[in-house]
Amino acid sequence: MEDKLHFKRIYTQTIETEWLQAKHVLLHVLRLDCIHPVISGNKWFKLKYHLSKAAAEGYNTITTAGGAYSNHIAATAFACRTAGIHAIGMIRGERPPVLSPTLERAMADGMQLEFISRNLFRDKTILQQAFPQSYFIPEGGYSTEGAMGAMEITGYCSDPEQYTHLVCAVGTGTMMAGLVRAATNNQKVIGISVMRGNTALKQQVAALLGPEDLGKDYSIEQGYHFGGYAKHPPELLQFMNDTWNTWQLPTDIVYTSKTLFAIFDMLKNKRLPPRSKILMIHSGGLQGNLSLGDGVLLF
Ligand SMILES: *Cc1c(COP(=O)(O)O)cnc(C)c1O
């Protein structure tokens, strides 16, 4: 499967600047965004064990759920097409008159779209049982299989144990759970919530951990959502353009720009100590920037 997807190499990019140097901070960005234009970033890791399980159990259809701009929906559609499995995407809300670029893309990749009213969508059993002959992946890929795949992410660094902090964006918390599971007891995992006031996240992460993770140090930051999910005020767009100009690092409006901003802010206000060795996971999601008008971003 991985051969068929023609994955590109994942590498770490060093972020250097005077004020980071003055604090003796090491900041590496793990560029998962580079592996594939559609199955970008963490989505492949969250899907891989589901795909192999579905194939092993003889399913020829995979069903999953998500919103109209969901990177998980786009990634699942593409991965299923490559694997030769039929995909059904249950999309939250009524069918809009104009489909989002994400849904257009998913449909072009052969995904069957089913629009589910917001009320029904809330009921996880309804989603799970809607297509009983198919293999079901929960909304956004939230699952122990997803966390298991995400455990492999830090394996793409040359020396993962050198880091004192692993920092990532949090949507469902699946990727973060995988990082916590992969972390040593001396490392701290910090998740940046991209939603306003989602206080259930810590519990959501904890539910994907095992007994061996009881001593692990992890926390979720709630102050960097910039107004809420996918909100992108001008100061965030400015930050993204500055980041591109300075380090040629592209970020997305939903997840990775807010994560990098949070790291800088926490270093400046000393919530992350000097001499920290930080690994930020660039979890991808650049296709989400397509919802912006032309010329807003420099990349
Ligand atoms: C989906 C996604 C996340 C969130 O991952 P979860 O495992 O749902 O927390 C983070 N970053 C990007 C770019 C994503 O597409």
Radius of gyration: 19 Å
What gap, in angstroms, lies between the N and C termini? 30 Å
The helix-and-strand class reads alpha/beta
Low-confidence stretches: none
**Ligands, deduplicated:** pyridoxal-5'-phosphate
What is the helix tally? 11
The total beta strand count reads: 10
* Overall geometry: globular
Largest sheet: 6 strands, mixed
- Give the strand line-up of the largest sheet: 1-2-10-7-8-9
- Characterize the quaternary organization of these chains: single chain
Output mean pLDDT: 96
Strand content: 15-25%
What proportion of the residues is helical, as a percent range? 25-40%
Helix/strand order, N-terminal first: EHEHEHEHEHHEHEHEHEHHE
List keywords for this structure.
six-stranded mixed beta sheet, 299 residues, alpha/beta, single chain, 10 strands, binds pyridoxal-5'-phosphate
Structure description:
The protein is an alpha/beta fold and 299 residues long. It is 33% helix and 18% strand. The chain is built from eleven helices and ten strands. β8 (188-193), α9 and β9 form a beta-alpha-beta unit. α2 (42-56) packs across α3, α3 runs parallel beside α4 (101-108) and α7 crosses α8 (174-182). It binds pyridoxal-5'-phosphate (PLP). Pyridoxal-5'-phosphate is lined by residues 41-43, 46, 71-72, 140, 169-176, 252, 255-256, 283-285. Pyridoxal-5'-phosphate binds next to α2, α3, β7 and α8.
